[in-house]
Amino acid sequence: MASGTTRGGLIAAAVTVVCAVTVLAAPGTAWAGPNPAPSASATPAPGTTPAPPTAPTAPAPSKDLQAVRAQLDTLYHDAAVATDAYNAAEEAAKKQSAALVELARKIVKGRERLAELKTRAGAAAAAQYRTGGLPDEAHLLLSDDPQEFLDGTGRVLQGQKATKGLLAELTQTQQDLEQYAKDASAQWQKLEANRKAKAKAQKRIEQQIAAAEALESQLEKQEKERLAQLEQEAARQAQTAWLDTGVLKGAQGKATTQGAKAVRFATAQMGKPYEWGAEGPTTFDCSGLTSQAWAHAGVPVPRTSQEQWKQLPHVAVEDMRPGDLIIYFKDASHVALYVGDGTIVHAPRPGRTVTLAGAGSMPILGVVRPGA
């Protein structure tokens, strides 16, 4: 930075940098639907039997809906993984932006201090120059009051000591400014890397969601209804199988005051739409809901489901209590808040709303406990 930069200019520049890096890359290319079927209107060759008219492509029969459901699950799961990557990059970018602003403030203060120290050092050098010339012996001989001279000599020694300290502080301040500049450069590089990671994750999210929506759009109304029934049946079967293991037998854990607050907040959001990257107040993704629920209870937790799994204390499934977070799938790509009696509240996926579900309706990776 130029030495003449003002405090306001540096801070404004830092804030501009922070704002600029939060701008996302342009959306990814849209998912392309299947190519249209070739026309069957060609005239048959003479002497040949005309081929029967090509029937319109029928929607997938019910027996194939299980395959459609599996494909949708894969697409939305991939979108959830990309959402976690996006949220992680966004959180890191926020921290790096804050660090850059703080470094800019330190640089401003450091330059002001450096200018002050240089002024004082110059004044000290000028004072020493004015009192120089004759050796101390000559000053003693020419002095009318030897005691006054000796007192003055003490003050000179004190001044020399102070000057030495002043120069040491000036050197340290210069070194600090150099380190701040290096730190700012490193943070900027990390910020740029996270900006690219966010843009890549956003493109992946949008592509997977577009592909899923295009697949669903090919289904007739009755098939969509049947697909929903298949999803509900699969969830019920998974929940029943989970409960039949006896995992909740004897579980009597009660919510803490903070856990109860988190549950109340999360359940109050029921009916609000899922939106990837959202933390409320009108839309949520899965970890946005759980992190905000616990923030409302006064306990900060990591933003993403993967970091919640990594950083929060683990507890056994049979020991979980309302307010605990249940992490799902081997890659920790989904999270829900346990409300008790084998039930969770969560933000499922795009196109759905915050809702209650069976805790065992999805593959459980484990349980973590905020505030433990």
List keywords for this structure.
6 strands; six-stranded antiparallel sheet; disordered N terminus; alpha+beta; elongated; 8 helices; 372 residues
Describe this structure in words.
By secondary structure, this protein is an alpha+beta fold. It has helices spanning 7-21, 65-131, 136-142, 146-217, 221-244, 257-268, 286-296, 305-311; strands at residues 314-315, 325-328, 334-340, 343-346, 355-358, 364-368. A six-stranded antiparallel β-sheet has the order 1-6-2-3-4-5. α1 packs antiparallel against α2, α2 (65-131) crosses α5 (221-244) and α6 (257-268) packs across α7.
Structural topology:
Layout: H1 7-21, H2 65-131, H3 136-142, H4 146-217, H5 221-244, H6 257-268, H7 286-296, H8 305-311, E1 314-315, E2 325-328, E3 334-340, E4 343-346, E5 355-358, E6 364-368
Antiparallel strand pairs: 1-6, 2-3, 2-6, 3-4, 4-5
Quick overview of this protein structure:
The chain has 372 residues and is α+β, with helices and mostly antiparallel strands.
End-to-end gap: 46 Å
Helix content: 55-70%
**Order of strands across the main sheet:** 1-6-2-3-4-5
Give the SSE order as H and E letters.
Answer: HHHHHHHHEEEEEE
Strand content: 5-15%
Would you tell me the overall average pLDDT? 77
How many distinct helices? 8
Number of strands: 6
Give the overall form: elongated
Model regions low in confidence, pLDDT < 50 over at least 5 residues: 1-62, 137-142
